[in-house]
Fold:
Amino acid sequence: MKSKILMSLLAMALTATSCGNGHDKQEKAPTRVKTEVVKSTNDGTSKPYVGIVEEREGTAVSFTSMGVVRHMLVSEGQAVSRGQLIADMDDTQARNMLAVAESTMEQANDALKRYGMLHDNGSLPEVKWVEIQSKVSQAESQLAIAKKNLADCQLRAPVSGIIGKKNLNAGETAMPSQAVVTILDISTVKVKISVPEADIKHIDNTTTSIINVEAAGKQVHGGLIEKGVQADALTHTYAVRINVENTDRKLLPGMVANVQLGTAEGESVAIPTLPVTSVQKRADGSLFVWVVSSDNTAHRKAVTVGQTMGTRIAITQGIADGERVVTEGYQKLSEGTRVIVD
Structure:
């Protein structure tokens, strides 16, 4: 009888254990993730960089005298032509000064005419005649200055381009030499990139380049290159500017450009890239990605990154072509977690 009871208790224990193991297996179900197989991009003779579009030339335009701005006739981003009126200031005082100068000029000319008859008759001392002529010259100079001051109340574009920044509005006081607007020449633009010192020796003014600007929806071939000769003290990189034709004016200063820069030696460069979000950072600042091994388990792998290219980033060390990297679902992973790849 006792043996039957023991056998029953043992059977119940085994059943409970079996149910418990099934529950544990359910809790340890593999984690679903999305992955990407690493594949280096190789265009044969190029290296990727990220650059910024710059204007060909910027001109700060200002009044030559102090005054209250009466009208501001342009807005930021507007195209202007050389000689176009940009703004004007209150010219009441300038007009009054011009009226005085014109009156003085009229008096001087009248005196010159009347005393000229006496001089021709020989009844006017030479000293007096010289004095009359001197007053006429002074009146002419004052009139020219008054006309110039009135003209300076209007601000006109010295060059053609687009308005980059507007610093004053109507009703505000303009000071001499204070920039009212900045006019940018973007008929040709420059794309500035920073090149590591190890690569600068491969670049000359004829190095080829392909430039993609997503914001403008435009991909172009770069022109002549201007290579800086002084490195940045902190990053040890050199500024390189690539001239780009921009006749349609779609490329605007400040836009981000992805640049594929050829090498003078024609060396082949293959660089793997991954989504920026797939690269994680440890507490000590080191970077890693989650890779899926052949047994479908996830493992951390340290990496070194390079330039960013839009939403992707170059991986210079740590992974190889063919490895599977987790791009979504990595938040739930720990070392050795079993995964299911969607």
